[in-house]
Amino acid sequence: MLSEINNSFKKSKSGAKVVVAMSGGVDSSVAAKLLVDSGYDVVGITMKLWGYKDSGGNVVEDSNCCSLDDIHNAAIVCTQLGIPHYTLDYSEKFREMVVKNFVEEYKRGRTPNPCVLCNTEMKWRALLEKVDDLGVDYIATGHYARKVRHPETGTWRIARARDAKKDQSYVLWGIQPDGLSQTLFPLGDLTKEEIRTLAADANLRTAHTPESQDICFIPDNDYRRFLKEKHATDLADVTPGDIVDMDGKKLGEHKGIPFYTVGQRKGLGLATGEPMFITQIDTDHNTIRVGRREETLADTFLVEDLNWFEEMPMGEPIRVFAHIRYNHPGEWATVTAEADGVARVVYDNPQAAITPGQSAVFYQEDQVLGGGYIKAVVFENETAGIEE
Amino acid sequence: MFAHDGGIAMNTIYLDYAATTPVRAEVIQAMSQTMETVPGNPSSIYTTGRLAKYELTRARDELAEVLGVAGNELIFTSGGTESDNLAIKGLALANQHKGRHIITSQVEHKAVLDSCQRLQEWGFEVTYLPTDKWGLVDPETLQFALRPDTILVSLIWVNNELGSINSITELGKMVQEHGALFHTDAVQALGKLPIVCRDLPVDAMSVSGHKIYGPKGVGALWLRKGTALQPLIEGGSQESNLRGGTENLPGIVGFSTAAQLIEQERETRVADEQVLMTELSHALDDIPGIRLNTHPELRAPNILNISIPHVDGESLFINLDLAGVAVSNGSACTSGAQQPSGVLTAIGVPDDLARATIRISIGRDTTRETLERFTDILKQEVYKLQKKSKAIA
Questions:
Q1: How far is CA A214 from the centre of its chain?
Q2: Does the pLDDT of residue A388 top 60, yes or no?
Q3: Residue in B7, B315, B337 closest to A130 by CB
Q4: Which residue of B has its CA nearest to A87?
Q5: Inter-axis angle of helices B25-37 and B249-284, to 10 degrees?
Q6: Final residue before a domain boundary, out of B211, B228, B261
Q7: Which SS3 state, helix, strand or coil, does residue A356 take?
C-alpha cells in the first residue's frame, strides 16, 4: 500500500543484458537459471575474493566460497544453462577493503560485519564498475531480498524477501541508490525450499551445496585465531588492559581489545558471583567495561556513514523498525538525521548489547529506508555530556 | 550426466592453436581404427597382444623417423607436462652423483619451472637465467652460469607464450661441451621447425600430440641412447622400464599419425603462416601504445604476443569471448585468481600491462578473412576500453 511492488524482473525488456554474480552455491545458480528462463541475456561472473591459505587454521580449501571447486561449479552451471562464465579476480581489493577494515574495526574496539562492507564495496560498487565495461544493463545476485519502487518518489528500495527465515535485506543497506536501480534480485519471491527444488529439477550441479558460513574468509568462525595467526603484525601494538565494572572498579585483565565484543559473556575470566557482560570497550584507556545483563541495555545510540534510499529531511524524527544486528528481532524506534551523515536513534524499549561497528538498518513495513554503522551508545548517565 | 542445452556457441574465431588444436580427420580415423581392430595389450605374449605390440612399434618407429631418432629412444608419456617432469626430475635424480646444480630460464613452461622448484625442495640448486625482452637466453649468460657441478640445463625451444625461438644449437653445444645434459621443451617447435634430434646438441626433448592436430593426453620424451634416467611412474617394464603402465595405443597411433602429417606439410604451412602473421602484425601496428613481446625475427610462424596499454585486461577478454574470439591472455589461472604470467613479468612487462596481454596463435584453419575479422573486433574493443580508461584518468 505504501508502495507498488515491482520486483518482477520478468517484466523487464526481454534480451536485456544481466551479469549474475555466482558464488558456486545453489542460490546464485538458481538466480542465473531464473534470469535465463525469463529471456535475459545472461553472463555468469564469479568474483574471486579470497585465497584460503590466507585464512589459516585447519581450513581445507574445498567447499568454501571462492575455492577452486566453487568457481568450477559456477562455470559448470553456466554451461548447463547455456551462458558464458568468467572469473574476475578481486582478491587484492577484497583484502584491502574488507579484510583490512575487519582487522582495524576490532582494533578500534568495534565489531564489524564484513558482509555489509563486501556487498557495498565489492558486489555492488566494484562489480557495477566492471559491468559498465561490458555494456551490461543489470547486475543480479542470489540474495534473498526484493526491490520495490516507491509510487510517489519513484525511487527504488530494498525490501525483505518472502522467505523471512532467509531474508538478507539487512546486509544490503549500503548499496548506492543508483546501483540499486541497476540490480535484480531473482530470488526475492521464493523460499529456500522452492529454490532447492528448482535446482534439483533442473539437475543443476550445485543443487545440493551446503549453506555458506558466517564469515566466508574465516570458515572455522574463530576470528580471534584469525587475527592472532594471520594479522600478528597489525596487532603488534595491542596490549592487555583492565576489565572494570560500571563504577570503574578493576575486576580482572583482558588480553587486548580486538579479542572482545560488546555483549560478550564467555572468556572474560572473572570470578564474580553473577554473569557479567561487556557493556563498553574503551580504546582510549584500553579498558573493557562489564556489567550485569540489565546494564547492557540502552535505548539511544548514534549511527554514522548513513545510506538512505529516500531523501531524509534533517532534524525530523521518523518512525522506523530498527535492527541492530543480523538476526536481531528488531524494535520500534525514532530516528533523526543530524549533521555530517550521523543520525540519532531512540528505541521505544531498551535493547541489549547495541554494538558499535554493527549495522543499524531502518525499515518501514517491509522496506529498507536506509542504514548505517553504529557509532556509539548513549548511556543514560552520559546523556548530559552529549551535545545536542 | 547433466543437462546441457548447447546454448553457448563455440568461439567462431579460434586463434589459440598454441593452447590446443582440433584433431584432424586422418588422425581420428587412425585412432578409431586402432580401437576397433587392435584390442590387445602390447605386453601380452599371445597373438592379440603381439599384434598390439606390432602396431605400437610401427607408430613408435614412424614418429622416431619424423624426429630423426631411433624408436627405442622414445618414451611415450601422457603429454608435454609429463615429458618435462620426467626429463627434469628423472635426469637430475639419475645423475646427482655428478653434481646437484641445474640451470633453466625464467620463461620456461610451468612444467619445467615447477619441476625445478620440486628439485630445490629435494636439495638441488637451480639457477633461473634471465632473458632479453623477447624471452631469449643470451649464450653468454648461460656460459657464466655453468658450474663444475652443473648436471642439467633445460631451455625451451619455441617459447609457448611468446613464440620467440631460442638458439638451441648454440646453447646446447655450450652445455654439452661443458659436460652437462641438455633438455629442451620442443612442444611448440614440432611441426614448425626442422627437427632432426640426432644432429642436435640435445640429450632430451619433450613433444606433445595435441598441439599438432593429434589427441590430448599423449606425448613423448626423446632421450639420447645411453643417457641415465630415473623413471617417475613405475609398475611395469613398458617404455624400456622408464615409464610403467599399459601404453595408450590409440593415442600413440594418433600422435604418430599427426606428427607424420604435420612434417609432410611443414614447409608449405610455415610459409603460409608467416605471410598471415606478418599481415596481422602490420594490421595491429596502429593500436596506440601496442607492445610486441615476440621477437621480430627469431619467432615461430604461428605465434604473436602483444600487450595493449590503457585497457582493463579482464574486460577485454570477456568482450572478445562474447564476440566469439578465442585467444589466450597473459595470466596464469591459479585457483581462479588471475596472476600476471611469470613469463611476462620476467621479460619486464608490468602487471597491469600483463593483464592486457594477448597471445594470438594461428593454425591450419586460419584464413586471412578470420584474421581481418579478428583485427576489426580487437580494435573496436580496445578503442572502447581505452577511451573509457582515458575518461577516468
A1: 10
A2: no
A3: B315
A4: B336
A5: 170
A6: B261
A7: coil
pLDDT, tens digit, 9 for 90 and up, residues A16-61: 999 999 999 999 999 999 999 999 999 999 999 987 777 877 665 5
pLDDT exceeds cutoff 70 at B332: no
Q: Which residue has the cell 596481422?
A: B280
Please answer whether residues A9 and A186 qualify as being in contact, where contact means their C-beta atoms are separated by less than 8 angstroms: yes
Residue extent(s) of CATH 2.40.30.10 domains in chain A: 295-385
Number of folded domains in chain B?
2
Cα separations in angstroms, B5 against A39, A77, A186, A203: 15, 12, 22, 12
The length of chain B is: 393
Assess whether B236 and B342 both reside in one domain: no
**Distance of alpha carbon A378 from alpha carbon A385, whole angstroms:** 10
Query: Domain A9-201, CATH 3.50.50.60 — does that match?
Result: no
- Touching B: A residues 29-58, CB under 8 Å: 43, 46, 48, 51
Q: Which residue of B has its CA nearest to A45?
A: B318
Q: Could you tell me the fold of the domain covering A295-385?
A: Elongation Factor Tu (Ef-tu); domain 3 (2.40.30)
Do residues B158 and B245 both lie within one domain? yes
Instruction: Supply the ipTM of this predicted assembly.
Output: 0.84
| B15 found inside a domain | no
Q: Any bridge partners for residue B221, and if so which? A: B75, B206
Place of cell 590503457: B310
A282, β-bridge pairs = A287
Q: Are residues B163 and B303 in the same domain?
A: no
Range(s) of the domain holding residue B161: 25-261
pLDDT digits (tens, 9 = 90+) for B155-208: 999 999 999 999 999 999 999 999 999 999 999 999 999 999 999 999 999 999
Q: Pick the residue with more confidence: B32 or B393?
A: B32
With a cut of 70, say whether residue A106 has pLDDT above it: yes
Domain-embedded: residue B20: no
